[in-house]
Design a protein that fits this description.
The protein is about 0% helix and about 30% strand. By secondary structure, it is an all-beta fold. The N and C termini lie far apart (about 35 Å).
């Protein structure tokens, strides 16, 4: 389900994909989202009425992204002998294109 850049969603960043109808459930969607580069990320606990295809995430409602619990993962950085673990940003959203020119995300932890 990944393209040559190994992205999960790899649609075109223009217009109303699929004519405004979700190909998965055949309903109208509020917005279609896709990554605009190979390093895009949607990170956190997602909730909402969504369908995911290889090209797009089709949102039928607002998408809420909450920070995960305290056991959120870390990543290793640094060269051998100098490695350390740093937390991964829990609700980073970057390089995501939306068909309605809105970001379409709600972050309840930031309110």
């Amino acid at each position: 389900m990944t393209d040559s850049d190994e992205r999960i969603m790899a649609g075109d960043a223009e217009g109303q994909p699929n004519g405004g109808t979700c190909p998965a459930c055949k309903r109208e969607y509020q917005r279609a989202l896709t990554f605009t580069d190979g390093k895009g990320v949607i990170r956190g606990d997602l909730s909402g009425d969504i369908c995911i295809t290889p090209e797009y995430l089709f949102a039928h409602s607002e998408i809420t992204i909450s920070a995960p619990d305290d056991d959120f993962p870390t990543r290793e950085i640094g060269a051998m002998g100098n490695r350390k673990e740093v937390p991964i940003e829990p609700t980073a959203v970057s390089s995501v294109w939306s068909s309605d020119d809105e970001d379409g995300f709600v972050f309840p932890d930031e309110e």
